[in-house]
Amino acid sequence: MSIKVGFIGTGNMGTAIIKGMAGNKDIELLGFDLNSEILEKLNKECGLKAKSSARELATESDFVVLAVKPQYAENVLEDITQELNDKKCLISIAAGLTVDRLKEFTGNSCPVVRVMPNTPALVNEGVFAVCIDDKHLTDAQKEFAGVMFESLGDVHILSEKQFDAFTGVIGSGPAYIFYFMEALIESGVELGLTRPQATSMVSKLFAGSTKLAIESDKHISELREMVTSPAGTTVEALVHLDRTATRANIIDAVHKCYERSIELGKN
Hints:
This protein has 2 domains: 3-160, NAD(P)-binding Rossmann-like Domain (Rossmann fold); 171-266, ProC C-terminal domain-like (ProC C-terminal domain-like fold). The chain is 53% helix and 14% strand. The protein has 12 helices and 8 strands. It has an 8-stranded mixed β-sheet with strand order 3-2-1-4-5-6-7-8, with helices on both faces. Helix 1 links the parallel strand 1 (3-8) and strand 2. Helix 7 packs across helix 12 (246-266) and helix 8 crosses helix 9.
């Protein structure tokens, strides 16, 4: 018997997860979204079965994936609470919503898994934090929650108390990377490269450096030292970054994100 996985919300991340799960003959995909065109497209591409309401979807699903913006989550969950029970499992990718708050919204009617993705999941290179702390989860539900995102990247089973740290470093991490990429691109333009040239070069720089970091058996510091010759050009730039406390500012920025994540979880 196939496992029925229903998605409430088929935006960018919801769609990425659906596409990642498509083709698994042991899974039947269901979906509800106010945008019927998206549902029709996913039906053609992934075999997803569109449902007319969130309640209908919840009634028919074994796993209900909440993929809406956090501000809409409470209303959606209150609407489907009567269709939930301890045989079903709610999987939430809504940022900032703790397991306790999700269970409060559903009247504690079903076990809950909290998931934090990051945007590279859109190209199957994501990093996922999965919380299976809820003591009401069955072993089968825990196992499924741990593997359902594997086609989209790396999955890390974390306790919920680690989620704010994950958010600070990984969840928001792509924005830091793109911020640094933008700065390098602007530097290239200032020094005479065309914007398309600088953008292409910097994008390949990050892709190549990341691949080297993943595939090399050398520590990150050793890889940096490989480029840093005594009295050379690179060390001049790196010493300037150290003198202006760039490393400390990055660490402080991550802490700011971490602290904000904690605040949002309390609201």
